[in-house]
Design goal:
- With 111 residues, the chain is an alpha/beta fold.
- The chain is built from 5 helices and 3 strands, in the order H-E-H-H-E-H-E-H.
- The chain has helices spanning 15-24, 44-52, 57-60, 73-82, 94-110; strands at 33-36, 64-68, 86-89.
- It has a 3-stranded parallel sheet with strand order 1-2-3, sandwiched between helices.
- Helix 4 (73-82) links the parallel strand 2 and strand 3 (86-89).
- The protein starts with 14 loop residues before the first helix and ends with a helix.
């Protein structure tokens, strides 16, 4: 869906692959991570915690947005407490995704 808006994307099969890709990347390779919470091998919460603990400041500061069917307030709070910057409930509405991308970009410009 994001490709339709000119946004380049890359997929990771699970949280462990995501963490490995981020840690092996060069600064500026990734601007935002959409993280599924329920994944095999390493779930999105644990993957987020691992990214936030990175010794590379630019890795630890990459915005991470949860994408999950769990939409209760306690689920959103759990995602935020793990270090995520936002939450989008499934099924995904592309308008909400684009709005979240804009919100994060604007927040980074103000920093």
């Amino acid at each position: 869906m994001l490709n339709m808006f000119g946004i380049t994307t890359e997929r990771a099969e699970n949280g462990r692959v995501c963490v490995d890709k981020i840690n092996a990347s060069t600064e500026g390779s990734y601007e935002l991570i959409f993280m599924d919470v329920q994944m095999p091998e390493m779930n999105g919460l644990d993957a987020t915690r691992a990214i936030r603990k990175s010794e590379k400041p630019w890795v630890a500061s990459i915005p991470i947005v949860a994408m999950t069917a769990d939409a209760f307030s306690e689920n959103v709070t759990e995602c935020l407490n793990a270090g995520m910057n936002g939450h989008i409930a499934k099924p995904v509405d592309i308008k909400l995704v684009i709005r979240e991308i804009r919100r994060i970009r604007e927040g980074r410009k103000q920093s």
